[in-house]
């Protein structure tokens, strides 16, 4: 109980800003992706060619979606990927097989890069901050829908703590082939008042 209050206080006390990932950030991103706590769930190759393939298009503005560097008091601590599901039809269809996907819905993925910052409520705070940023940056987005492999307990608990509710579960293609296809689908709707 005491730890939960401490985590909640941390989540309320931090201030995040977001900026687009640039090619100059690829070395930092590579270090993060190679951290065991990230590599387990993201399962990305980290060669320069792979980083260019997976992140170059958004860094250059030639691919849909956003790769956002999460800054805590100006210091990079994580990455958030944000995209409209309509821009990725196959992924949208995976969601739609399990739950209603409203027109204009957005999805996110996220990581905290520094292993020393994991397990302290930072992920929950970062998710909450990107939700608020999404309502401002995408005023026509009615909801944020997120799929998490069921085995990634820390990730889906962070979503729940950030106000998401589980709306479905079922098979989706896992990022890491060692994982079972079972995913939990979470959703957070835009507040009726338009304020976060």
From TrEMBL:
Q: Which domain of life is it from?
A: Bacteria
Q: Its annotated pathway?
A: Siderophore biosynthesis; mycobactin biosynthesis
Instruction: Give a single Pfam family match.
Output: Acetyltransf_8
Segments forming domain N-acetyltransferase: 16-191
Which Gene3D superfamilies does the record match to this protein? 3.40.630.30
One function term, GO molecular function aspect: N-acyltransferase activity
Q: Which InterPro entries match?
A: Acyl_CoA_acyltransferase (IPR016181), Acyltransferase_MbtK/IucB-like (IPR019432), GNAT_dom (IPR000182)
| One GO biological process term | siderophore biosynthetic process
Ordered alphabetically, the record's keywords are:
Antibiotic resistance, Transferase
Q: What does this protein do?
A: Acyltransferase required for the direct transfer of medium- to long-chain fatty acyl moieties from a carrier protein (MbtL) on to the epsilon-amino group of lysine residue in the mycobactin core.
Q: What is this protein called?
A: Lysine N-acyltransferase MbtK
